[in-house]
Sequence to fold (124 residues):
Amino acid sequence: QFQLVESGGGLVQPGGSLRLSCAASGFSLEQKAIGWFRQAPGKEREGVSCMTFTYPDDPYYKNSVEGRFTISRDNAKNTVDLQMNDLKPEDTAVYYCAGRRDDICPVGASYDYWGQGIQVTVSS
Fold:
């Protein structure tokens, strides 16, 4: 069974940091693109970041998180992380990790595997 499981969410004050982790089981993340999405209440799901296996030094970031969020992957552990710094209230959302069967970061949300999501709340 293919599974992605997120961890590391929670409540943090504005300006604080959180590190989300996503563990894959039942399949390998090698040769596959991986991404992070988020969905705030009443809003559509939006792509936050994406990283390919072939070009890990050239990840995609949504403009509003560029310079604050960092995606990374550990192929040996079969995990992908999202380090989130200088968090803002508008970062509050349910965050999802997602995986592709191929090594392409798509436009939009065309992913093959999805985690169940984890809540991130930024509030004082």
